[in-house]
Amino acid sequence: MRILYQSDTIVVREFRPDELQLFMSLFEDEQVTRYLPARTLAQYTALFNDALKDYCTGVLGRWAIFDTASDDFIAIALP
Fold first, then answer.
1. Rounded distance, CA 70 to CA 28, Å?
2. What three-state secondary structure class fits 41?
């Protein structure tokens, strides 16, 4: 797992393969998906799998943002 950025308050890193449910949980929040096109669970799973593949080919991809104090998942960063 590669860390893209870390400070006293957040860490931006690659998702781990076992974090699919964490990734999916973000899209269960209506405030998060309010302005996004409607997607199925299969499409979100494909997005996650694409992110894992993208890590092998370069820095483009979806990055996980976590609170360093609580280790809570905060958001997804897109470069």
1. 21
2. helix
Amino acid found at 51? A
Q: What is the layout of strands, in order, in the sheet containing 3-6?
A: 3-6, 10-14, 63-67, 73-77
β-pairing verdict for 3-6 and 10-14: antiparallel
The confidence score (pLDDT) of residue 79 equals 67
The owner of tokens 């199925």 is 40
Report pTM. 0.83
Nearest CA to 6 among 67, 58, 51, 55?
67
User: Residue 52 and residue 35: Cα distance in Å, rounded?
Assistant: 24
